[in-house]
Amino acid sequence: MLHVSYADYQTVYKGTLTESDYGSVADEACAYVDKITYQRLEEDIPDYVKKAVCAVADVIFSKNKLLKDSKFQSRVKSFNNDGYSETYDSYSTVQRSFKKEIYDAATIYIPLSDPLRYAGVSS
Fold first, then answer.
1. pTM of this prediction?
2. CA angle 113, 118, 120 (to 5 degrees)
3. 26, 57, 94, 116: which could join 37 in a potential S-S bond, CB 3.0 to 4.6 Å?
4. Would you call 5 helix, strand, or coil by DSSP?
5. What pLDDT score was predicted for residue 12?
6. pLDDT digit string (tens) for 70-102?
7. Distances from the Cα of 30 to the Cαs of 33, 58, 66, 76, in angstroms?
8. CA–CA separation, 122 and 96 (whole Å)
9. What is the C-alpha separation between 95 and 111, in angstroms, rounded?
């Protein structure tokens, strides 16, 4: 399985998470990028793949922080001023939203056209 260190997170990606925060999400981020690249990378990881892992780590950290927050329902989905009504995002809606954000974060650095994302067999 590929691994991107905190040193890479700081130098290649220039991220803002602390070492412990990055460590709490790094394995999940690496596993996600490993999955979408079909486990093709273990050594000599290109910088653009490291950036993808780091971007995914940032999104996963944000997701975990929001879902752990007891006030996670503060994400207002709709608001009506006349009769004062608020609707909050459900847990599953928030999960779906973050799933797309994780996908988008990885795709910025590893587009679908990249050979690492090719699921077929090359001759």
1. 0.82
2. 140
3. 116
4. coil
5. 98
6. 555 555 556 666 667 666 666 677 778 899 999
7. 5, 12, 21, 31
8. 33
9. 23
Domain ranges of the chain: 6-117
- Retrieve residue 100's tokens: 């797309």
> Are 30 and 4 within 8 A, CB to CB?
yes
Rounded CA-CA distance 67/90 in Å is 11
H/E stretch holding 88 reads strand 85-88
Please provide the distance, in angstroms rounded to a whole number, between the alpha carbons at the two ends of the chain: 24
CA distance 22 to 26: 6
Helices (H), 13-90: 19-36, 47-68
C-alpha distances out from residue 70 to 21, 22, 40, 109, Å: 19, 22, 39, 33
Other CB atoms within a 10 A radius of the CB of residue 28 amount to 16
